[in-house]
Amino acid sequence: MRTLLWGVIPYVAVVLLVAGLLWRYRYDKFGWTTRSSQVYESKLLNIASPMFHYGILFVLVGHLVGLFIPESWTEKVGVKEHTYHLLSLYGGTAAGILLVIGILLLLYRRRTNAPVFRATTANDKLMYLVLFGAIVLGMVAKLTHASGDGYNYRESIAPWSRSLFTLQPDTDLMAGVPVLYQIHAVVGMALFALIPFTRLVHMFSAPVQYLFRPYVVYRSKDPSRVGPRPERRGWEKTGS
Prior knowledge:
Layout (H helix, E strand, L loop, with lengths): L1 H26 L17 H24 L2 H6 L4 H32 L1 H5 L3 H23 L12 H7 L15 H16 L46
Protein name: Respiratory nitrate reductase subunit gamma
Organism: Streptomyces rectiviolaceus
Subcellular location: Cell membrane
């Protein structure tokens, strides 16, 4: 079971993520969208959506720092484990609260607004369930082991995560990890596998092309052509 959970499922999730993105881009370009429901309701969406997106961005950055920056590196710049634990605890909790409030408001809006609810698919419901489960499990795991110096996941989960990139997963590192952290990790991998098949796929649609698009040229109106004018037959000359 340890080999399955920590040596097989991570790669299955990555394969589903990459293959799903390629399949979606090849066969469902017009479905590669957030399927926005702003046309039905925008007042609550303008509050909930920024909270959700900023919250999940802060949470993602915290996970990347915690998992992929070794403990020795932060100690070399003067950040001791206790200091890191406090930053992770308070900063992660604040970001998690912001994220939870945002997703709860989005769920409330989706359930109470009839047109928005009718536009909700079974795929959306599964996505919200897994996403909300991953968020709550991560916060509960962190707060449950918050006393003292807390649980130092950078000595177990973090090196295991990095070992996956060498294709030599050290599954023994996950043996003593608290159960809540293990469940959080499994749900997180399930979420990554679901991304290509849900509206979350839009996170891979950064508008890079806007940096290279041509300028939009605006021209002033010809005063002689302002106002109503009689219709003319044939082609009109274009000015420079």
